[in-house]
Amino acid sequence: AAEGGSARPCPWGCREYLEVEQILDGRYRLQRMPGGGVALPVLAEKLTERHVRALQSGPQALPCSQAQIQDPVPSKAAAVRTPAQQLRRALRRLVVASGESWTPELERDVPRSWQRHGDLVLLGEESLRAAPWQRLGPALWETVASALGARRVAQGGRVSPGGTRSPRVALLLGQDGWVQHVDNGVRYTFDVTKCMFSPGNITEKLRVASLPCAGEVLVDLYAGIGYFTLPYLVHAAAAFAHACEWNGHAVEALRRSLALNGVQDRCRIHHGDNRQLQLRDVADRVNLGLIPSSEEGWPVACRVLRKDTGGVLHIHHNVEALPARRQPAASRDEPRLPQKASSDGQEDGEREHESLKDTEPCDKGMQAARVRPEWQTWAEAAARRVRALLEELHGRPWRTSILHIEAVKSYAPHVHHIVLDLECRPTLP
């Protein structure tokens, strides 16, 4: 620090000079020194004898010298740290206090993001894996919790192989993994060590909550912990919901969440494989929220849909959309018909033309420019497939109309999670 003498206890001229020379260290405050002097924080690597002489002989004419301060006071701006910065600082102190060295490996291993569920933080599985962390024992997780203002810490998150989609999560600090999470006024409760929570679906949950479902019966074929079942009941005013789920841990979480939101009397949980579901002819609306594909549930959706009036299917799917290839210049102005496929996957122009009579194109109220060609192609194929299933099931013509295609999120490079809103109605004689 450069120290001004007691003749001028507030050397503002010195400060302005240091700022102009880009030597003042903004991370720290000015500090009063014993004897009445003032210490100005400077960047030691930039301060030269020339600067000291300029301070002593310039207009400010102050006696100056260099001094080392062991515990400089952080400036107000520096004192405001992000949670990630606070965590890094706390972990560095812990490592040094334990006799270890703070290394670039440990620096890279500090988590920079996490999920928070109430008083529990869920860390990613790739952080805090270096050997020195393991030697710190419980103190490591207590430090993480303290730095982030939590009481419990868990780590992991990758989904185990198998149909139940259970996460591999370890509880590192705390007695149990049950948490509460609030989205758009809907309260979810679940055990983070048994059930996964997908924050990336928030836009679709908000959209579902705004749908006009008053008086309708919903069938949610892949309910999970109630991602979509609950918004349908709490905000969209569905009269009743049938929630299908085969993961017992998710069923318990859904049961608790229904009670938390006071809608348990308007929902029946069907625990088991939805392909064995005995429901028929009950649904005004069916949610098929399974990715990468819910196609295995389409026959079930057709069976539960009201056979006399039909309804709407919300079909989730991951669609690959590769970067468009530039067309040869000679063919750019030539009109080109899109390549289609019949329901059995073979190209058949005559059959395709006949099929599209009862499959209305997108869109009613949607900006077509936002819909990628690959999404539209998949949606039209899905509409044809569902129509064929309905006609086979009921023995009469049906009409399928693409109401909307919603992009939920990018699931992987060039792969998008989309939702197709498909209206299905029996054709009147």
UniProtKB/TrEMBL annotation:
<dbReference type="GO" id="GO:0031591">
    <property type="term" value="P:wybutosine biosynthetic process"/>
</dbReference>
<feature type="region of interest" description="Disordered">
    <location>
        <begin position="323"/>
        <end position="366"/>
    </location>
</feature>
<dbReference type="InterPro" id="IPR030382">
    <property type="entry name" value="MeTrfase_TRM5/TYW2"/>
</dbReference>
<dbReference type="Pfam" id="PF25133">
    <property type="entry name" value="TYW2_N_2"/>
</dbReference>
<keyword id="KW-0819">tRNA processing</keyword>
<feature type="compositionally biased region" description="Basic and acidic residues">
    <location>
        <begin position="348"/>
        <end position="363"/>
    </location>
</feature>
<dbReference type="InterPro" id="IPR056744">
    <property type="entry name" value="TRM5/TYW2-like_N"/>
</dbReference>
<comment type="pathway">
    <text>tRNA modification; wybutosine-tRNA(Phe) biosynthesis.</text>
</comment>
<keyword id="KW-0808">Transferase</keyword>
<dbReference type="GO" id="GO:0005737">
    <property type="term" value="C:cytoplasm"/>
</dbReference>
<dbReference type="Pfam" id="PF25132">
    <property type="entry name" value="TYW2_N"/>
</dbReference>
<dbReference type="GO" id="GO:0008175">
    <property type="term" value="F:tRNA methyltransferase activity"/>
</dbReference>
<keyword id="KW-0949">S-adenosyl-L-methionine</keyword>
<dbReference type="InterPro" id="IPR056745">
    <property type="entry name" value="TYW2_N"/>
</dbReference>
<protein>
    <recommendedName>
        <fullName>tRNA wybutosine-synthesizing protein 2 homolog</fullName>
        <ecNumber>2.5.1.114</ecNumber>
    </recommendedName>
</protein>
<dbReference type="InterPro" id="IPR029063">
    <property type="entry name" value="SAM-dependent_MTases_sf"/>
</dbReference>
<dbReference type="GO" id="GO:0102522">
    <property type="term" value="F:tRNA 4-demethylwyosine alpha-amino-alpha-carboxypropyltransferase activity"/>
</dbReference>
<dbReference type="Pfam" id="PF02475">
    <property type="entry name" value="TRM5-TYW2_MTfase"/>
</dbReference>
<dbReference type="GO" id="GO:0030488">
    <property type="term" value="P:tRNA methylation"/>
</dbReference>
<comment type="function">
    <text>S-adenosyl-L-methionine-dependent transferase that acts as a component of the wybutosine biosynthesis pathway. Wybutosine is a hyper modified guanosine with a tricyclic base found at the 3'-position adjacent to the anticodon of eukaryotic phenylalanine tRNA.</text>
</comment>
<feature type="domain" description="SAM-dependent methyltransferase TRM5/TYW2-type">
    <location>
        <begin position="114"/>
        <end position="426"/>
    </location>
</feature>
<dbReference type="InterPro" id="IPR056743">
    <property type="entry name" value="TRM5-TYW2-like_MTfase"/>
</dbReference>
